[in-house]
Backbone:
């Protein structure tokens, strides 16, 4: 998805994990995914460089759909749809 | 999909290696792995109730003269303590912590109650070897 499409998504859950280093964002994403329904969209905010590659891989292993990442100044916005 | 299993032989009781174990454990539970941790010799000391994540009672395996900097850096980065990692991971996936009976005794721990409450049972080496044979991933720290 393009950054514009990502910005227009109806996000059900925003997980702000910018305060934590790896593995914080991954664990926060894992916990938050359990609180939303199938088909709903989650956005993870992370300032950790590793999260940018970790979350797409994690999505594919868990069966969630990775939608894309927007790179902001000093952090990433990572979007996914729950399976 | 069948749940993958990880077996972790946790020999070390040093704060740096325990922290690494906590981080690796986090990755495993994020993937819904079933994890069995076998706490061996030095590790059992760290699991004693009076030690746990008290940094004054734990040593560093590497760069021992830099323990204060290491701990401060973890704090600045808001990294959990090893006990906090283990405790949280147990709420996310199936994580069982088994204390080697001999190791416990070496450090004065006879009963499960002598160890921090995240420990599940006391076991023998046979249980560890069986778990290594059944696991998809084996780690030794």
Residues:
């Amino acid at each position: 998805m393009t950054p514009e499409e990502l910005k227009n998504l109806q996000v059900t859950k925003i997980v702000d994990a910018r305060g934590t280093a790896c593995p914080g964002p991954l664990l926060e994403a894992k916990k938050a995914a359990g609180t939303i329904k199938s088909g709903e969209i989650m956005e993870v905010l992370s300032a950790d460089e590793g999260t940018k590659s970790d979350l797409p891989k994690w999505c594919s292993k868990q069966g969630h759909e990775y939608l894309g990442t927007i790179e902001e100044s000093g952090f990433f916005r990572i979007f996914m749809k729950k399976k | 999909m069948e749940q993958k299993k990880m077996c972790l032989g946790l020999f070390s009781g040093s704060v740096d290696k325990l922290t690494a174990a906590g981080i690796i454990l986090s990755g495993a539970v994020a993937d819904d792995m079933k994890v069995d941790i076998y706490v061996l010799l030095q590790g059992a000391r760290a699991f004693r109730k009076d030690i746990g994540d008290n940094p004054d009672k734990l040593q560093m395996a590497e760069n021992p003269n830099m323990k204060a900097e290491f701990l401060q850096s973890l704090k600045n980065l808001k990294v959990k303590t090893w006990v906090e990692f283990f405790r949280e991971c147990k709420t996310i996936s199936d994580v069982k912590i088994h204390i080697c009976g001999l190791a416990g005794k070496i450090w004065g721990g006879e009963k499960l109650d002598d160890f921090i409450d995240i420990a599940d049972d006391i076991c023998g080496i046979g249980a560890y070897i069986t778990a290594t044979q059944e696991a998809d991933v084996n780690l030794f720290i």
